[in-house]
Amino acid sequence: MTDIGKVGTFMLGTRRVKRMGYGAMQLAGPGVFGPPKDRQAALSVLREAVASGVDHIDTSDFYGPHVTNQIIREALHPYPDDVVIVTKIGAKRGAGGSWNPAFSAEELTSAVHDNLRNLGLDALDVVNLRVMFDVHGPAEGSIEAPLTALAELQRQGLVRHIGLSNVTPKQLAQGRGIAEIVCVQNQYNLAHRHDDALIDDLAAAGIAYVPFFPLGGFTPLQSTALSDVAKALDATPMQVALAWLLQRAPNILLIPGTSSTGHLRENLAAAELQLSADALSVLDRIAAGAATV
User: Fold this and answer.
1) DSSP H or E stretch at residue 101
2) In this structure, which of 25, 173, 233, 255 has its CB flanked by the most CB atoms within 10 Å?
3) Nearest C-alpha neighbor of 111 from the set 97, 129, 84
4) Is 188 a catalytic residue?
5) Residues in Cβ contact with 232 at an 8 Å cutoff, skipping those fewer than 6 apart
6) Could you report the per-residue pLDDT of 30-67, keeping only the tens digit for each?
Protein backbone atom coordinates (compact mmCIF):
# COMPACT_ATOMS: atom_id res chain seq x y z
CA MET A 1 0.00 0.00 0.00
CA THR A 2 1.17 3.53 -0.80
CA ASP A 3 2.51 5.45 2.18
CA ILE A 4 0.93 8.88 1.68
CA GLY A 5 2.60 10.05 4.87
CA LYS A 6 5.91 10.29 3.01
CA VAL A 7 5.04 13.79 1.79
CA GLY A 8 4.51 15.02 5.32
CA THR A 9 1.72 16.92 7.03
CA PHE A 10 0.54 20.48 7.50
CA MET A 11 -1.72 22.25 9.96
CA LEU A 12 -5.32 22.92 8.93
CA GLY A 13 -6.50 25.12 11.72
CA THR A 14 -5.80 23.14 14.89
CA ARG A 15 -5.77 19.82 13.03
CA ARG A 16 -2.69 18.28 11.44
CA VAL A 17 -3.48 16.47 8.20
CA LYS A 18 -1.52 14.54 5.61
CA ARG A 19 -0.74 16.59 2.54
CA MET A 20 -2.45 14.08 0.24
CA GLY A 21 -6.21 14.23 0.71
CA TYR A 22 -9.33 13.53 -1.32
CA GLY A 23 -11.92 15.74 -3.02
CA ALA A 24 -15.48 14.41 -3.18
CA MET A 25 -16.85 16.55 -6.02
CA GLN A 26 -16.74 13.77 -8.60
CA LEU A 27 -18.93 11.51 -6.47
CA ALA A 28 -22.03 13.37 -7.72
CA GLY A 29 -23.54 12.89 -11.16
CA PRO A 30 -22.40 14.47 -14.45
CA GLY A 31 -21.68 18.17 -14.07
CA VAL A 32 -21.57 17.67 -10.29
CA PHE A 33 -25.36 17.48 -10.43
CA GLY A 34 -27.71 14.73 -9.33
CA PRO A 35 -26.84 11.26 -8.04
CA PRO A 36 -23.92 9.11 -9.24
CA LYS A 37 -24.47 6.30 -11.70
CA ASP A 38 -23.01 3.84 -9.20
CA ARG A 39 -23.58 4.75 -5.56
CA GLN A 40 -21.83 1.63 -4.28
CA ALA A 41 -18.70 2.57 -6.24
CA ALA A 42 -18.80 6.04 -4.67
CA LEU A 43 -19.04 4.51 -1.20
CA SER A 44 -16.12 2.20 -1.99
CA VAL A 45 -13.88 5.09 -3.10
CA LEU A 46 -14.43 6.95 0.16
CA ARG A 47 -13.85 3.91 2.31
CA GLU A 48 -10.68 2.99 0.44
CA ALA A 49 -9.39 6.57 0.68
CA VAL A 50 -9.69 6.53 4.48
CA ALA A 51 -8.33 2.98 4.70
CA SER A 52 -5.32 4.21 2.70
CA GLY A 53 -4.58 6.91 5.26
CA VAL A 54 -6.44 9.91 3.84
CA ASP A 55 -7.49 12.17 6.72
CA HIS A 56 -8.58 15.29 4.77
CA ILE A 57 -11.79 15.11 2.74
CA ASP A 58 -13.07 18.11 0.81
CA THR A 59 -16.75 18.47 -0.05
CA SER A 60 -19.70 20.86 -0.27
CA ASP A 61 -23.43 20.49 0.16
CA PHE A 62 -23.92 22.22 -3.20
CA TYR A 63 -22.28 19.22 -4.89
CA GLY A 64 -25.30 17.35 -6.15
CA PRO A 65 -26.73 19.30 -4.31
CA HIS A 66 -26.64 17.33 -1.05
CA VAL A 67 -25.44 14.19 -2.85
CA THR A 68 -21.77 14.02 -1.90
CA ASN A 69 -22.36 14.86 1.77
CA GLN A 70 -25.01 12.17 2.04
CA ILE A 71 -22.65 9.65 0.44
CA ILE A 72 -19.83 10.68 2.79
CA ARG A 73 -22.11 10.17 5.77
CA GLU A 74 -23.28 6.75 4.54
CA ALA A 75 -19.72 5.61 3.83
CA LEU A 76 -17.87 6.92 6.88
CA HIS A 77 -20.18 7.93 9.74
CA PRO A 78 -19.34 7.75 12.60
CA TYR A 79 -16.15 9.37 11.38
CA PRO A 80 -12.69 8.29 12.51
CA ASP A 81 -11.24 10.75 15.01
CA ASP A 82 -8.40 11.75 12.69
CA VAL A 83 -10.56 12.58 9.64
CA VAL A 84 -11.04 16.28 8.90
CA ILE A 85 -13.97 17.18 6.65
CA VAL A 86 -13.74 20.54 4.90
CA THR A 87 -16.79 22.00 3.19
CA LYS A 88 -17.65 25.24 1.43
CA ILE A 89 -20.60 27.61 1.22
CA GLY A 90 -21.43 30.70 -0.82
CA ALA A 91 -23.04 29.09 -3.86
CA LYS A 92 -26.19 27.20 -4.75
CA ARG A 93 -27.32 25.16 -7.74
CA GLY A 94 -30.03 26.19 -10.14
CA ALA A 95 -32.67 23.78 -11.40
CA GLY A 96 -30.60 23.06 -14.51
CA GLY A 97 -27.35 22.69 -12.62
CA SER A 98 -26.14 26.30 -12.87
CA TRP A 99 -23.77 27.68 -10.21
CA ASN A 100 -25.26 30.75 -8.54
CA PRO A 101 -24.08 33.04 -5.72
CA ALA A 102 -25.65 32.47 -2.30
CA PHE A 103 -23.98 35.18 -0.24
CA SER A 104 -26.62 36.56 2.11
CA ALA A 105 -26.43 35.85 5.84
CA GLU A 106 -29.63 33.81 5.56
CA GLU A 107 -28.27 31.72 2.68
CA LEU A 108 -24.94 31.13 4.43
CA THR A 109 -26.66 30.11 7.65
CA SER A 110 -28.94 27.73 5.77
CA ALA A 111 -25.93 26.25 3.95
CA VAL A 112 -24.08 25.57 7.21
CA HIS A 113 -27.12 23.79 8.61
CA ASP A 114 -27.51 21.79 5.38
CA ASN A 115 -23.90 20.64 5.67
CA LEU A 116 -24.32 19.74 9.34
CA ARG A 117 -27.48 17.74 8.67
CA ASN A 118 -26.29 15.87 5.61
CA LEU A 119 -22.87 15.07 7.06
CA GLY A 120 -24.33 14.13 10.44
CA LEU A 121 -22.16 16.54 12.42
CA ASP A 122 -22.68 18.93 15.31
CA ALA A 123 -19.93 21.28 14.10
CA LEU A 124 -17.99 21.64 10.86
CA ASP A 125 -14.18 21.37 11.06
CA VAL A 126 -13.44 23.90 8.30
CA VAL A 127 -15.83 25.94 6.16
CA ASN A 128 -14.52 27.74 3.09
CA LEU A 129 -16.39 30.83 1.96
CA ARG A 130 -16.62 30.44 -1.82
CA VAL A 131 -16.47 33.92 -3.35
CA MET A 132 -18.78 34.17 -6.37
CA PHE A 133 -18.30 37.60 -7.89
CA ASP A 134 -17.23 35.65 -10.99
CA VAL A 135 -18.00 31.94 -11.24
CA HIS A 136 -15.00 31.40 -13.53
CA GLY A 137 -12.30 32.81 -11.27
CA PRO A 138 -11.37 35.36 -8.62
CA ALA A 139 -12.80 38.86 -9.07
CA GLU A 140 -12.51 41.85 -6.77
CA GLY A 141 -15.32 42.80 -4.42
CA SER A 142 -15.80 43.20 -0.69
CA ILE A 143 -16.26 39.98 1.30
CA GLU A 144 -16.90 41.79 4.59
CA ALA A 145 -20.63 41.04 4.85
CA PRO A 146 -20.58 37.30 4.04
CA LEU A 147 -17.43 36.63 6.03
CA THR A 148 -18.84 38.48 9.04
CA ALA A 149 -21.92 36.24 8.81
CA LEU A 150 -19.72 33.13 8.68
CA ALA A 151 -17.66 34.39 11.63
CA GLU A 152 -20.90 34.70 13.62
CA LEU A 153 -21.68 31.04 12.89
CA GLN A 154 -18.19 30.25 14.14
CA ARG A 155 -18.90 32.14 17.37
CA GLN A 156 -22.05 30.05 17.76
CA GLY A 157 -19.90 26.90 17.68
CA LEU A 158 -21.27 25.56 14.38
CA VAL A 159 -17.97 26.17 12.55
CA ARG A 160 -14.52 25.55 14.01
CA HIS A 161 -12.30 27.12 11.36
CA ILE A 162 -12.77 29.39 8.33
CA GLY A 163 -11.14 29.32 4.92
CA LEU A 164 -11.58 31.26 1.67
CA SER A 165 -12.06 29.99 -1.87
CA ASN A 166 -11.76 31.70 -5.25
CA VAL A 167 -10.23 34.82 -3.75
CA THR A 168 -7.74 37.52 -4.66
CA PRO A 169 -4.83 38.59 -2.41
CA LYS A 170 -6.76 41.78 -1.62
CA GLN A 171 -9.77 39.79 -0.45
CA LEU A 172 -7.54 37.54 1.63
CA ALA A 173 -6.08 40.59 3.36
CA GLN A 174 -9.57 41.89 4.03
CA GLY A 175 -10.65 38.48 5.31
CA ARG A 176 -7.74 38.17 7.72
CA GLY A 177 -8.87 41.43 9.31
CA ILE A 178 -12.28 39.89 10.05
CA ALA A 179 -11.49 36.30 11.06
CA GLU A 180 -8.61 33.88 11.32
CA ILE A 181 -8.18 32.26 7.91
CA VAL A 182 -6.71 28.74 8.01
CA CYS A 183 -6.66 27.93 4.29
CA VAL A 184 -7.13 29.31 0.80
CA GLN A 185 -8.64 27.16 -1.94
CA ASN A 186 -8.02 28.52 -5.45
CA GLN A 187 -7.43 27.06 -8.88
CA TYR A 188 -3.77 26.18 -9.34
CA ASN A 189 -1.82 23.56 -11.29
CA LEU A 190 1.17 23.15 -13.58
CA ALA A 191 -0.38 25.29 -16.31
CA HIS A 192 -2.36 27.73 -14.15
CA ARG A 193 0.09 29.47 -11.82
CA HIS A 194 -1.42 32.89 -11.13
CA ASP A 195 -1.15 32.25 -7.38
CA ASP A 196 2.60 31.62 -7.24
CA ALA A 197 3.32 34.67 -5.08
CA LEU A 198 0.23 34.10 -2.94
CA ILE A 199 1.29 30.52 -2.15
CA ASP A 200 4.68 31.70 -0.94
CA ASP A 201 3.09 34.43 1.22
CA LEU A 202 0.70 31.91 2.76
CA ALA A 203 3.53 29.46 3.45
CA ALA A 204 5.37 32.18 5.36
CA ALA A 205 2.20 32.82 7.39
CA GLY A 206 1.60 29.13 8.11
CA ILE A 207 -1.66 29.07 6.13
CA ALA A 208 -2.58 26.06 4.00
CA TYR A 209 -3.13 26.41 0.24
CA VAL A 210 -5.47 23.86 -1.33
CA PRO A 211 -5.42 23.90 -5.14
CA PHE A 212 -8.64 22.90 -6.82
CA PHE A 213 -8.48 21.47 -10.33
CA PRO A 214 -4.93 20.22 -9.59
CA LEU A 215 -5.16 18.08 -12.72
CA GLY A 216 -6.85 20.70 -14.89
CA GLY A 217 -10.46 20.05 -13.91
CA PHE A 218 -12.91 19.86 -16.79
CA THR A 219 -10.03 20.37 -19.26
CA PRO A 220 -7.35 17.89 -18.10
CA LEU A 221 -3.72 18.93 -18.35
CA GLN A 222 -2.11 18.00 -21.65
CA SER A 223 1.56 18.65 -22.34
CA THR A 224 4.26 16.86 -24.27
CA ALA A 225 6.78 17.91 -21.64
CA LEU A 226 4.58 16.46 -18.89
CA SER A 227 4.15 13.21 -20.80
CA ASP A 228 7.89 12.93 -21.43
CA VAL A 229 8.75 13.40 -17.75
CA ALA A 230 6.10 10.85 -16.79
CA LYS A 231 7.43 8.30 -19.27
CA ALA A 232 10.96 8.66 -17.95
CA LEU A 233 9.69 8.03 -14.41
CA ASP A 234 7.38 5.17 -15.40
CA ALA A 235 4.49 7.19 -13.99
CA THR A 236 1.32 8.72 -15.40
CA PRO A 237 1.21 12.40 -16.39
CA MET A 238 -1.37 13.02 -13.68
CA GLN A 239 0.87 11.46 -11.02
CA VAL A 240 3.69 13.76 -12.10
CA ALA A 241 1.38 16.79 -11.99
CA LEU A 242 0.37 15.92 -8.43
CA ALA A 243 3.96 15.24 -7.37
CA TRP A 244 4.97 18.65 -8.77
CA LEU A 245 2.37 20.33 -6.59
CA LEU A 246 3.58 18.47 -3.50
CA GLN A 247 7.14 19.63 -4.16
CA ARG A 248 6.07 23.17 -5.07
CA ALA A 249 5.51 24.33 -1.46
CA PRO A 250 5.17 22.69 1.96
CA ASN A 251 1.80 24.32 2.67
CA ILE A 252 0.08 22.82 -0.38
CA LEU A 253 -2.58 20.25 0.53
CA LEU A 254 -3.89 18.15 -2.34
CA ILE A 255 -7.49 17.02 -2.79
CA PRO A 256 -7.57 15.22 -6.17
CA GLY A 257 -11.01 13.82 -6.83
CA THR A 258 -12.16 10.66 -8.55
CA SER A 259 -15.09 8.26 -8.56
CA SER A 260 -12.85 5.27 -9.34
CA THR A 261 -10.86 3.21 -6.83
CA GLY A 262 -8.27 2.55 -9.54
CA HIS A 263 -7.74 6.26 -10.15
CA LEU A 264 -7.71 6.85 -6.40
CA ARG A 265 -4.78 4.45 -6.02
CA GLU A 266 -2.95 6.13 -8.89
CA ASN A 267 -3.46 9.56 -7.34
CA LEU A 268 -2.29 8.47 -3.90
CA ALA A 269 0.81 6.84 -5.40
CA ALA A 270 1.97 10.33 -6.44
CA ALA A 271 2.91 10.84 -2.78
CA GLU A 272 5.87 8.50 -3.30
CA LEU A 273 7.06 10.07 -6.56
CA GLN A 274 10.20 12.19 -6.32
CA LEU A 275 10.98 14.68 -9.10
CA SER A 276 14.58 15.59 -9.86
CA ALA A 277 15.76 19.17 -10.27
CA ASP A 278 15.94 18.60 -14.05
CA ALA A 279 12.38 17.30 -14.14
CA LEU A 280 11.15 20.23 -12.08
CA SER A 281 12.87 22.65 -14.45
CA VAL A 282 11.12 21.07 -17.44
CA LEU A 283 7.76 21.12 -15.70
CA ASP A 284 8.14 24.71 -14.54
CA ARG A 285 8.32 25.81 -18.18
CA ILE A 286 4.86 24.41 -18.94
CA ALA A 287 3.11 27.44 -17.44
CA ALA A 288 5.13 29.82 -19.60
CA GLY A 289 4.10 27.86 -22.67
CA ALA A 290 0.44 27.86 -21.61
CA ALA A 291 0.53 31.62 -21.18
CA THR A 292 1.55 32.13 -24.80
CA VAL A 293 -1.17 29.90 -26.28
Assistant:
1) strand 99-101
2) 255
3) 129
4) no
5) 279
6) 999 999 999 999 999 999 999 999 999 999 999 999 99
